[in-house]
Amino acid sequence: MRGFSQLSPTERRLLLEVFWARTSARSDLAGRLDFSKSKINAAITDLIGAGLITEIGPRPSSGGRRAEGLRVTLRDGLIAGVDIRATHMDIALLSPDMSVMARHCEPISVRGEPEPLFARLRDVLDLLLRQLGQERERIRMIGIGVPGPVDFESACLATPPLMPLWEGFSPRQALAADFDVPIFVDNDVNILALGTLWHLSRSADDFLVVKVATGIGCGIICRGQVYRGVDGAAGDVGHICIDPNGPVCHCGNVGCVEAMAAAPAIARAGAAAARSGESPRLLELLQAHGALSPEDVGLASREGDPAANAIIRGAGADVGRMLATLVNFFNPSHVFICGGVATIGPAFLASIRQSVYQRSLALSTRHLAIRPIPHPADAGIVGAGVLGFLEAI
Questions:
Q1: Measured between alpha carbons, how far apart are the two ends of the chain, in Å?
Q2: Mind listing the pLDDT tens digit for each residue in 261-307?
Q3: Which terminal residue of the chain, N or C, has fewer Cβ atoms less than 10 Å from its own Cβ?
Q4: Beta bridge pairs of residue 80
Q5: What one-character DSSP code corresponds to residue 377?
Q6: What are the TM regions of this chain, as residue ranges (predicted)?
Q7: What CATH topology corresponds to 78-200+378-392?
């Protein structure tokens, strides 16, 4: 069987089109790609022979003869999608249509050395393969998201603020000895953006995915593709300064939006309000749990606690100030909000919207929608799978 490197430009374009469309008919492909029927048929025959696509039977008729459907099969292989976050790791084996075949999620910390975590990742991949009765050879490609800047070409972490012990570490090299397949690594927000692009079926081509969690980052989809910048650092918006007199960030600068509105900042503000007597409800939660989480602050806010509500709204306004700059600069159709902080209550998203619309130019917001990310539960692992497929072929 031919490898991906042996695909002709026509075959590669056709394979990508079938992938994004989920299922396609020959006539549909010819129209979308502006290929002749003979060119399409020859390429399809070659791809079927290579085991990369398969015919799945007649599609529903719209009048006349029913067209034969086509779907990516990758020689009956699987794609591994790995979504590593600051506090948990989500691992899945996916079919080429991004259906989840097996999945495992567990809490982790990225503060320590990366090698033990990747030893665990190898064990989990083997566990998932055993659940499906498959061997390692069935995995055709691996996509990995990590919570830090990535030099995309080398697949190495580059000065990651949340995980300094990962500096120069290559997830690709860590897995290469056990999995002889294409392995690609990207920032976790970029894979969330790819997962969103997949779930939207490419109905939007220019949008932002903003994750507010332990850190704050942004995935940028520009003209239907992830924009990474020259060195892979595009979207590191958490270190945009919104207050030159603000607190010191772990990156060493002051007033970064991450230092003022990410999960640790919300928890600290909640603890301060509890200890000062400003919020009896937060003090009650602090005494019950021993420490406050952003979820605790969100709970108190939803219960009507004024201090907690002010903290949540203040964090949303801070994120909105940063986003207003991006909206004026990029003019996206959508800004999708995700991450643990995004789920703590409606006041957070409402404050983001208010701040963005107040501070952005009218033309930049004319068609702008700010909403939660679609399919948040699997956007990361699906995006990692999409990354693996797109880069491998």
A1: 14
A2: 999 999 999 999 999 999 999 999 999 999 999 999 999 999 999 99
A3: N
A4: 93, 142
A5: T
A6: none
A7: Nucleotidyltransferase; domain 5 (3.30.420)
